[in-house]
Amino acid sequence: MMNAGARVAAFVALLAAVFAGAALAGAAIDPEGGSDGSHGAARGHGAAGGHGSASGAGGMPAGVASEQGGYRLVVAGTRFAADRPAPLTFRILDAHGDTVRDFETEQARRMHVIVVRRDLRRYQHLHPTQGTDGAWTTSLTLPEAGVYRAFADFRTNGAQHTLGIDLFVPGAFTPEDLPASSDTARVDGYDVTLHSQPGELDFVVRRGGQLVTDLQPYLGARGHLVALRDGDLAYQHIHPDAKPPPELAFHIGDSEPGSYRLFLQFRHEGRVHTAAFTRVVKP
Ligand SMILES: [Cu+2]
Questions:
Q1: Taking Cα atoms as reference points, which of 57, 30, 6, 56 lies closest to residue 237?
Q2: Are 50 and 66 in contact (CB under 8 A)?
Q3: What is the mean pLDDT of the segment spanning 206-214?
């Protein structure tokens, strides 16, 4: 039989073991591990700390779960009528179920929402506004029937997170095939060329055969690249390296084998354009 002092000592030892275990578990499941909050050229939303990689250090890629890293995405309504604007309202909850109100500005906004149909068509990049209750709202028009994925891309408490949730538009839906792999894309009169290098994707924008050398900053960067993996829509958002124009170079790191749809957004003469590419990474 233990005396009181021994019992206290045993209890303290037990507590220490429990806390050590919890700390280890926390480290193991924290996909941000080591994220230092810097947002240098090669680091994008989720591009750092293994978070943005299709197979991050934490194991689970970004965007495939509605709950990850201690935060949860809750949407007020997931049903939309085709081609009719309706509010998309959501909250980010913390581990206690409380609504998160404090977000850090990331690429000129405190919350980024990417919406795409699950066949990787109908890409949208939206910026909701936050109400006094902490909920975020944006008007959303989902053009056609199908299942869509909405990603909330945000930074809070020094770490980047991307949570995803499905939205539904009833009606007849025929999924479109992923376009064939291509290193050129044409959008709004611009021709965009992709040069794939190990760990890096370089883009060049031309119009009428002429290099476009005066791209304008869009949300604090000369370009935004979102890569979505076909099949699970694993999410990666990258900003360009600090290479001089006209090159737009994105450090994407190692990619798991698979097919990806790349959405490159750039701004020129006051307008934002989205060029999309299919990229196949062979085993
Ligand atoms: Cu954004």
A1: 56
A2: no
A3: 94
Amino acid identity of residue 276, one-letter, is A
Q: Give buried/exposed letters for 215-240 (b at 16+ CB in 10 A, else e).
A: beebbebbbbbbbbbbeebbbbbbbb
Residues 137 and 49: their CA atoms lie apart, in Å, by 29
Expressed in angstroms and rounded, the spacing between residue 259 Cα and the centre of ligand 1 is 24
Q: How confident is the model over 120-144, as pLDDT tens digits?
A: 999 999 999 999 999 999 999 999 9
The pLDDT value given to residue 53: 38
- Distance (angstroms) between ligand 1 centre and the Cα of 106 equals 8
Ligand 1: centre distance to CA 127 (Å): 6
Determine the distance separating the centroid of ligand 1 and the alpha carbon of 129, expressed in angstroms. Answer: 12
Strand 124-126 and strand 129-130: the pairing is unpaired
**C-beta separation of 147 from 105 below 8 A:** no
Q: What confidence category does residue 161 fall into, taking pLDDT thresholds of 50, 70 and 90?
A: very high
Q: Encoding tokens for residue 91?
A: 């909250």
Distance, CA 130 to ligand 1 centroid (Å)?
14
User: What is the rounded CA–CA span in Å between residue 218 and residue 240?
Assistant: 12
C-alpha 168 to ligand 1 mean position (Å): 22
Q: Ligand 1 centre from 13 Cα, in Å?
A: 48
Query: What whole-number distance in Å separates Cα of residue 204 and Cα of residue 150?
Result: 29
Q: What is the DSSP letter of 176?
A: P
The pTM for the full model equals 0.79
The stretch 192-199 carries a mean pLDDT of 92
pLDDT in tens, 57-104: 457 899 999 999 999 999 999 999 999 999 999 999 999 999 999 999
Task: For residue 107, count CB atoms less than 10 angstroms from its CB and return exposed for 0-12, middle for 13-18, buried for 19 or more.
Answer: buried
